[in-house]
Specification:
About 5% of the residues lie in helices and about 40% in strands. The chain has about 650 residues and is mainly beta. The chain has six domains: about 100 residues; about 100 residues, no CATH class; about 100 residues, no CATH class; about 90 residues; about 90 residues, no CATH class; about 100 residues, no CATH class. The strands form 13 sheets. Strands 10-17-12-13-14-15 form a six-stranded antiparallel beta sheet. The radius of gyration is 26 Å and the shape is elongated. The two termini are about 40 Å apart.
Length: about 650
Amino acid sequence: MDPISRLLQMGAAGAASAAKTYIEDVFSTWLYTGNNSTQTITNGIDLSGKGGLVWIKNRDLGVPHRLFDTVRGYNKSLSTDATSAQATTTTDFTSFNSDGFTLGVEATVNINSDTRKYASWTFREQAKFFDVVTWTGNGSNRTIAHNLGSVPGCIIVKRTDTTGDWQVYHRSLANTEYMVLNSTAAKATGTTRWNSTTPTSTVFSLGTDATVNASGGTYVAYLFAHDAGGFGDSGNDSVVKCGSYTGNGSTNEINLGWEPQWLLIKRSSGSAEWAIIDNMRGIINPSVSPWMPVLAANSSNTESFFTSSSNKAQLNPTGFTLTAAGFDTNYSGETYIYIAIRRGPMKTPTDATKVFEVVARTGTGSATTAGSSVLTDVAVNKRRDGAGGAAWNARMTGVNYLDSSSTDQEFSSSVAWDTMVGIKYTGSGFNGSSLTYVNWNFRRAPGYFDAVCYTGTGSARTVSHNLGVAPELMIVRRRDVGNDWTVYSAATGATNFLLFGTDASQASSTRWNNTAPTSSVFTVGTANSVNVSSGTYIAYLFASCPGVSKCFSFTGNGTSQTINCGFTAGAKFVLIKRTDSTGNWLVADTARGIVSGNDPLLYLNSTAAEVTTLDWIDPDNSGFVVNQEATANANVNGATYIGLAIA
């Protein structure tokens, strides 16, 4: 997009103050597998209309990074790990689209040899987030106009017509200092890069160095905002921060005010890699794996290059935590700079099909993906035709899973989170040949569902979350040792709790500290099941989201009654638990059948196979109808129930 068009676009965006922008509109991490043919990546980012940058790296081949932006053109490529001039390509990257981009065939972006895996990061031009600027050098001190609409937090510059190092300005460095993106070197001093001048909300300054401003040379700059607001329902939320911290060699929590999804970290006080980390490839909580999937912007190496167990990070609702003395991330006494991008989605969902998917399937005994339409953060899998627990896998806990039919600690399973939709089962675990299963796949989204990992303290405390509203149903499970599943329901209150068993609701002050959750935190007491010192936990939080989900409660009437959830096409998923007396956690879904007649019934708290002889639930456009079934303990007259329905 030419500069005048981009100015008009930015101006129009500023005038249309009612328009709201969210991080999911301007940034995407998208993982894909090469197919050795034309491949279109549909990530929802409008590049053809708005402009931006696509950054691609093959994850398992030692080949260069590839960067394509809309200002230089789809057929011009740069590599962050090289000093070379931009290359002109004809078949590698073929178009910027209104909802992503299209690839041709080339090893660095799209081949199918040994099923090669790729990571792509898309940055859309948007005020207070990201901008792309090009210019021709004049050899004299000067300023360059930009459309970031705020003071840049980081500027990355590359000469495009000939060889030259990538130059990096960062707000945490002095305006006389710079770093080199294609190098492991520490920061250096050079007044001829930025002319010893701090950038403003409209321009940045250049000196006379050939890497940024040689007469007749051509250049591109990628600009990142810092804590500038401009996003979300309020229009005041920030989605990118460019900061710094000092390593401490142990647990080091970096507070951003929100959970990141993408990090670029570099040690500025000494030699180190430029580490790229994202939540799609995996940032595990806690960091128990020997290494996390890291790519180095300055290197063509594969992810396995970072094999050191000392480079560990984990995400939390307010930032990220370094958990070991990683030389590249957290060496004691050393200074680090970073760019952090906020996790999405930020927008409250209005369509349940975007955040929930139910899949009835037959196991293959080999690698298979369960799910085809929802970017999945948590997947629950249950066998139908025989005995088997209900396995809860979360993207943030990696290959580990918990079984809601058991109090055992978490186990490792044959899964991989390197797929954009659903969950990939890499072996026969939860995917036995010819066995039947059901998957319930959930995406985290404001007002609907969130998942939080935390470490216990042994003292009553609050835990931050990003649900954005007060949770109405919370399921908490200790992970590091065997323990109970502990459940909060707004209907039974903060002085009571339920277990993932048949038990009735019980009173206790040590679970929720007699304190109801809020839109930003939930409270845990001192019980081992929710908050023992150094114990590791995961909490699943649900809320009523109009037209999408409903956390309900009702009193049984002994016959049939309609549970109105505010839906228009009925519930696709229903979870019900009796609270005043014993009763299982009953589950129905439309993939297996919610019909007028007998319905397949599963128990989340049991290893039992599916029951198909009971008519305990019927369809209704507003939600569902529940019938009395004494065997299932459903809709008993005078009994009290809680549950969750998803449209």
